[in-house]
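ZP: hey, is the NAP complex queued? I don't see it on the tracker
AM: it wasn't, my bad. submitting now with these inputs:
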Amino acid sequence: MTSQMDGDMAIVIGASGGVGRALIAALRLDHRYQHVVGLSRQRPPDMFDDARQTWLEANILDASSLLLAARRVAALGMPTRVIVATGALHGPSLSPEKSLRALSADALAEGFAINAIGPALVARHFLPAMPRDRVSVFAALSARVGSIADNRAGGWYGYRASKAALNMIVRTAAIEHARTHPLGVCVAVHPGTVATPLSRPFIGRTPPSRLFTPQVAAGHVLRVLDGLGPEATGGFYAWDGAAIPW
Ligand SMILES: NC(=O)c1ccc[n+]([C@@H]2O[C@H](COP(=O)([O-])OP(=O)(O)OC[C@H]3O[C@@H](n4cnc5c(N)ncnc54)[C@H](OP(=O)(O)O)[C@@H]3O)[C@@H](O)[C@H]2O)c1
């Protein structure tokens, strides 16, 4: 362990999600982090505040709630890991579209709000709070289907497009962040296919070897982030550390 990591803090936005909860559990076991902060709309039942863990209410679509959360985080310390683990693929008014005929303006707007605009607001409020004097990583969980170059199967218009938009936001924020935080890393990460409520309706034919538990996926994501240095900023990485083409 290096002394530069002493007293580090990690933040997970989307603390109530499948991957988000597993990230928090894994970060708590990593004693480089003196404090782990989870943000979500509602407190997850197993997330109690203690000397090393704090839960804060935040809705990624409400800039004022993010501002308030960022102020409370600043009072706790400086985050060296910020992981945006929010996202939506389906819901009461959201369903992956198989064809152009299935497109709806409202569903597209909802998907873009959750998958692209929310994480952009998180970056706006949390990237400036990261330290300038040491390596720190801001990561937004994206999805390989957001890669334009990798799109061979089509379908899922809204989810694909909103994740592609997220990737551009991450890339653009990385360029701006590097001007003030030369040691900062700002990336998009694909966690693989993970057995969570987000993927549940769609994982039927996923081979077991390609379907990760949230715990395994969290381990992969944290390992990838640990391996990134400032030269990696602005990139899009898979769960195994491989770069994904835009
Ligand atoms: N699971 C997969 O196979 C897979 C594959 C590729 C990429 N990903 C990406 O990985 C990330 C995590 O997904 P997951 O599988 O863990 O999904 P999940 O279990 O459905 O969790 C999604 C999280 O997003 C939060 N969220 C949605 N809208 C929000 C809002 N307005 N404000 C605050 N939080 C909001 C949810 O909070 P509530 O509990 O309040 O709704 C929940 O914490 C997502 O970005 C997803 O796109 C997942």
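AM: back. The chain has a mean pLDDT of 95.
ZP: great, adding it to the tracker
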